[in-house]
Amino acid sequence: MEFFERFAVPHPSPAIYASMVAIVLVTVGIIVGLTYFKLWGYLWREWLTTVDHKKIAIMYLISAIAMLFRGGVDAIMMRAQLAQPENTLLDAQHYNEIFTTHGLVMIIFMAMPFIMAFMNLLVPLQIGARDVAFPRLNALSFWLFFVGAMLLNISFVIGGSPDAGWTSYFPLAGNEFSESVGTNYYMFALQISGLGTLITGINFITTILLFRAPGMTLMKMPMFTWSALTANVIIVFAFPVLTIALLMGTMDRLFMTNFFTTTNGGMDMLWANFFWVWGHPEVYILILPAFGIYSEIIATFSQRNLYGHKSMVASMVIISLLSFLVWTHHFFTMGQGALTNSIFSITTMAIAVPTGVKIFNWLFTLWKGKITISTPMLYTLLFIPIFTIGGVTGVMLGMSAADYQYHNTMFLVAHFHMVIIPGVVFAMLAGLHYYWPKFFNFMLNDKLGKIEAWVISMSTLLAFMPMFFSGLDGQARRMYTYSESTGFTIYNMISFVGAIGLASGFVLLVYNVYHSTRYATRNIPSDPWNARSLEWATHTPIPEYNFAIVPTVDSTEAFWDAKENGHVLYREPYTKIHMPNNSGMPFILGCIFFVWGFSFVFALWIPVLISTIGIFACLIHRSLEKDHGRYIEVEEIKKIEQAAGARR
Amino acid sequence: MLKKPILFASFLMSFIMLAGCEPLLVLDPKGPQAQTQAKDIILSIGIMSAIVFIVFIILAYMVYKYRASKQPADYKPPHIEGNLLVELICVGIPVLIVIYLSFVSVDSNNKVENPPEEYANEEPLVIYASTSNWKWHFSYPEQNIETVNYLYIPAERPLEFKLYSYGPITSFWIPQLGGQKYAMADMVNTLHLAASQPGEYMGRNANFNGKGFAENTFDVTAVSQEEFDEWVNEVHSNAEPLTEVKFEELLEPGHVGRSTFTGTHLTFLPPPEHNHGGSEEQNEHETHE
Question: Which pLDDT score is estimated for A20?
């Protein structure tokens, strides 16, 4: 395609023009608002340059929720298109772009930052640390993720969204069949945010291994920290594969190499292998921290310790190992023969065993407990049955001979939504309600929260159960339309109703946030749920340094034992605390990466060159910089602690 | 709290009921391979429903029995680390189920990867099925016939499909005759199917390949061997020969209707030869030919 054609608006449709106008208006609105209220300085000092893990967590959280709505709008458009046979709401090209970006946004730019938000907030608090090991790298991770998300999000107004599916199988994603710059956006959005994720992985492994409070052996770590550790180990092993695959794909698209082409010795199956060697562990990167959150919640609201702490840890470690041994089940139908399929069929089904152990451990945590049902607990209790349905259909899909029939059908779509929505999204929403006081220093409304949980969970069933049937009836995924004679109409209509239900559940969440922000009491205790682990041992709001005195830990539930069994958490006297300085560098580096990615997408080589020099200049500047942070003196700590104590 | 299990039980019931009443394509097999797969699916639905049911029951019991409102205010839940016996059961039973399903799965894999046993004495009909955006080309080398977007097949005779693509990865799928397999540009995949009775079946590409994906379908007509032979004769007397120019034209992206030719494109444009670590069975075939 010609250079200027690549800049052209992809769909001359009113929806795209409306989005363009909306984006411009919102941007102008934000700029005018910030100027009017003189907030630029505040924004720069408190947020853009922050290296505080708690503030980075909030930025991840807000981005994740924004992306949830963006991906949600895509979902509604898809379900609306399919609600009627021969519908003309969307054309084929538009539909292809929407399902591609829906998948990308939901996995990479919604679920990932959501778990990053919780990891950032909780891991240092749960292990009694003052920050992560590399605070500035942590900020850089966030900005790289954010830049990736923004690159993908401008694609639909400048140049066109990726349209080859979120898996972007070659040769379909190659130049020959995907002419627009959409797939270039895909490559760079994933590459840049993936780099950020890899940095996070290294950062958090280091933090967890080196920054634990005295006495906290690995087996005394709270379950969420364990889940974060396993997830980050998976990140460090899986993401480099994605990095290389994307690099090879980029080379194919921009420099005419032949890694994945159909000519000159390229192998399209190679992309599928690379993609899923990363892609399958990726789902466990998402789900293990979610399991961690459920474990915290179910113990707190049963007022009991987590049943089978050791087997919980063991099952997570086994899951993380198995996650690398099953990728071929994503292409049982690629013709690798009965032997290979049999091996991967067995490894796939084997994952059901450790996952089952976790389900039963949660059930037995309820045993002899004293169960109170608040919003987080309600989400957790609803998660168990719905996730079980999703999980057992996974075992069904794992039987490779039968998978020949499920493959690429709505049955598969039903399975992974029934796993990821209750598994990850419910966990994030449960965690959101549970940890809201730690994020924002007030509580969300519990009654609204419960309505929300029921609406969202029942709508999930309504939206995705019919897909099991339409899949078995021969509806392939990613079809933008179908004829009435196929008989798919009824299933898709029910799904559409479910999708509307889900959307209203999320709107209710927004209303809850609005309502609680306005009316909820502010002066809340630091441990409102009578919880069990160290993140509740700090004040609310959490001081910059988290713990004035680093706690000493003797058991898996240090805070609970401190409250109930006379365990002493704080044994040292006050000493001055070392904290890192804020830095604008991660944000600036993020901005340069944005220019770099955008220029690469359109093959604008001069800006690519300049921004590459800029990136290295930043790195060199950082290496030569002498910044040893600062100290908070004992006097100041005492003042802060007294004020926090008085508030209670 | 009782509402929940009832709700889920009703979902489960409707799942089973619907699966029983409506003839969902995959569960309405018309060939031995699809039969094997349908059996596996029904078996696994049964076992999995039992597991789901057990989880529902335990959950409902726990939530009902141990809710705070039912207990004395001073009740303090005990600290329970775990129980070896309980954990052995929780690991042991799933392990047994997985082992059982593994045996079933391995057995079925061998069945669907090989020619159907039911028709072991019959000589298979070899059909080359290739795709280009967004159509299907079917070559019958033995009969020296090529069709576009429709298949004519004899019932009660094994079929050996040779799958490949002139472009993106596609997936050849006739749900009622058996599961799908990918057609790719750089290797030929073999799929063994058979129809046990005459009839009209739906076939489609199941793997996304761009704009025209939704309409990337074909019709399958299974007839008796005599009728099939008649059809072959008819084609030979009526159809135009397939020329290289005509085939190049067909390869252009777009939708076309059904068409029939004498001769196949295999003579002037042979299928890809690579075999990137394909199945043993396939290697064998290549050495035979």
Answer: 82
Sole residue written with tokens 């690579």: B274
As a whole number, the mean pLDDT across chain A is 93
| Single pTM value for the model | 0.94
Question: Coil, strand, or helix at residue B241?
Answer: strand
Closest alpha carbon within chain A to B114: A338
Q: Determine which of A399, A409, A413, A494 to mutate to test the interface with B (most B C-beta atoms within 10 Å).
A: A399
* Cα distances (Å, whole numbers) of residue B17 to A345, B23, B24: 28, 11, 12
Give the pLDDT confidence score for residue A156 in this predicted structure.
Answer: 85
**B90/A356 touch (CB, cutoff 8 Å), yes or no:** yes
Q: Is B30 on the interface with A (CB under 8 A)?
A: no
Is the CB of B98 less than 8 angstroms away from the CB of A345? no
Is B42 an 8 Å CB contact of chain A?
A: no
Q: Which residues on neighbouring strands pair with residue B170, listed in sequence order?
A: B183
Return the residue of B nearest to A176 by Cα.
B167
**Given phi > 0 = left and psi -120 to 50 = alpha, else beta, which region is B188?**
beta
CB of A145 within 8 A of CB of A80? Answer: no
Check if the beta carbon of residue A296 is closer than 8 Å to that of residue A223.
yes
**In which element (H, E) is residue B240 found?**
strand B240-241
* CB-count exposure of residue A472 (10 Å: 0-12, 13-18, 19+): buried
- Position A578 scores a pLDDT of 93
Contact A333 B182 (CB under 8 A): yes
Enclosing H/E stretch for B159: strand B159-165
Look at residue B285 in the predicted model and tell me its pLDDT. 45
Q: Coil, strand, or helix at residue A260?
A: coil
pLDDT the model gives residue B289: 37
Q: Quick one: closest CA in B to A482, which residue?
A: B214
Write out pLDDT tens, residues A482-532.
999 999 999 999 999 999 999 999 999 999 999 999 999 988 888 999 999
Mean pLDDT across B11-16? 56
Q: Residue B94 and residue A356: Cβ atoms within 8 Å?
A: yes
A467 or B285: which leads in pLDDT: A467
The model's confidence at residue B11, banded by pLDDT at 50, 70 and 90, is: low
pLDDT at site B186: 87
Closest Cα partner for B19 from B3, B42, B35?
Answer: B42
> Is A216 or A13 the better-scoring residue by pLDDT?
A216
Sign of the Cα torsion A491, A493, A499, A502 reads negative
d(Cα A307, Cα B83) in Å, to the nearest integer? 9
Predicted local confidence at residue A2, as pLDDT: 57
ipTM of the assembly? 0.91
Query: What residues of chain B, 166 to 195, have a C-beta less than 8 Å from chain A?
Result: 167-169, 171, 173, 175, 178-182, 184-187, 189-190
DSSP secondary structure letters along A64-121: HHHHHHHHHHHHHHHHHHHTSTT--SS-HHHHHHHHHHHHHIIIIIIIHHHHHHHHHH
> What is the DSSP code (8-state) at residue B203?
E
Q: Write the residue in B22, B173, B185 that is nearest to A171 by C-beta.
A: B185
- Chain A with chain B: Cβ pairs closer than 8 A: 301
Q: Per the CB < 8 Å rule, is B52 touching A395?
A: no
Question: Average pLDDT, stretch A389-407?
Answer: 95
Please give, rounded to a whole number of angstroms, the shortest distance from the CA of A69 to a CA of chain B.
26
Cis peptide before B29 (omega within 30 of 0): no
Residue type, B99: I
